[in-house]
Amino acid sequence: MRCEKCGKENQEGMNFCEACGAPLSKPEYQQPMYQQPVYQQPVYQQPVYQQPVYQQPGMPQEPKKPVGLAVASMVLGIVALVLSCCVPYLPIVLALLAVVLGAVSLAKKMGGTGMAVAGLVCGIIGLVPAVIVIVSGAALFSALGSL
Amino acid sequence: MTDPYILRLSRNCYYVCLGLCAACAIGGLLLTVFHISLTEINPWPCTLYTAVGLYCPGCGGTRAVSCLLHGEWIRSFCYHPVVPYTALLVACYTLSHTVSILTKGKVKAMLFRPIYFYVMIGIILLNWIIKNAFILADGIYLIG
């Protein structure tokens, strides 16, 4: 450590110069900068739970039930209902078809149960005017025959 | 995600509706050009009405279609409400699918839903019951 007054080299750690007795300036102690480590809270990512699709081994997936018969039954039933007695004979055929298709669809447990029932009901209701006309026509015919 | 089976069924129904619209347009044009009335095409009177004096579920349908073709929506509704309902349903369904095809799927088309048919059946039966109730109760013939 060099004395600032006389320039003599002194040992490290000495407070006064050996030659002239002047106080020696110590290098400023620089406290090391303590840098607190930045604590980063780990981001917790909840794992996305994916429910496993259970497939019985060896069994194929159940196929979607077809609704064609039920739709056909319902449409035929509606047409038979609307044409009840305005067109000769056709509504009876359509109503019977609606009833048959609806019954087959329900018996075979196919898709579209609601539509099959609707077709069945419409077909039966569509037959009612035809039955009334046939019965009243038969009654009139027998009355005319007895005269 | 819509079931592909329902999508296929909806698209098939669209083709049927398209055919119906085309048939109605051609039929209407022919009737106009040749000055033919619908009642001339369907001359048969209602057999139930002739036999027992009650309306059948379809009574008034021909007159309702005729009124609709002449743009008389209210008269058509009075004759038979299911005719304007079906016309509106078929028109909306056909239009939605056509727009969906033209916009390459950006606009979603109407799907086949059984509820449309259940409402149709309900209208037919309700109309039948109400019109016959007027006949049985007060002898009032709403559609002549």
Q: Could you describe the 3D structure shown?
A:
Chain A has a domain at about 70-145. Helix content of chain A is about 45%, strand content about 0%. Chain A has three helices and no strands. Chain A has helices at about 70-80, 90-105, 115-145. In chain A, helix 1 packs parallel to helix 3 and helix 2 (about 90-105) packs antiparallel against helix 3. The radius of gyration of chain A is 52 Å and the shape is rod-shaped. By secondary structure, chain B is mainly alpha-helical. Chain B has one domain (about 25-140). Helices cover about 70% and strands about 0% of the residues of chain B. The termini of chain B are far apart. The interface between A and B is medium-sized, with 27 and 25 residues.
- The class by helix and strand makeup of chain A works out as mainly alpha
Strand content of chain B: under 5%
Order of helices and strands of chain B: HHHHHHH
Which of globular, elongated, flat, extended, rod-shaped describes the shape of chain B?
Answer: globular
Low-pLDDT stretches of chain A are: 55-62
Oligomer: heterodimer
Low-confidence stretches of chain B: none
The overall pLDDT of chain A, averaged over residues, is 76
N- and C-termini, Cα separation of chain A: 154 Å
Radius of gyration of chain B, in Å, reads 18 Å
Q: Helical content of chain A, roughly?
A: 40-55%
Elements of chain A, N to C (H/E): HHH
Please describe the biggest sheet of chain A, giving its number of strands, its sense, and whether it closes into a barrel. none
Class by alpha and beta content of chain B = mainly alpha
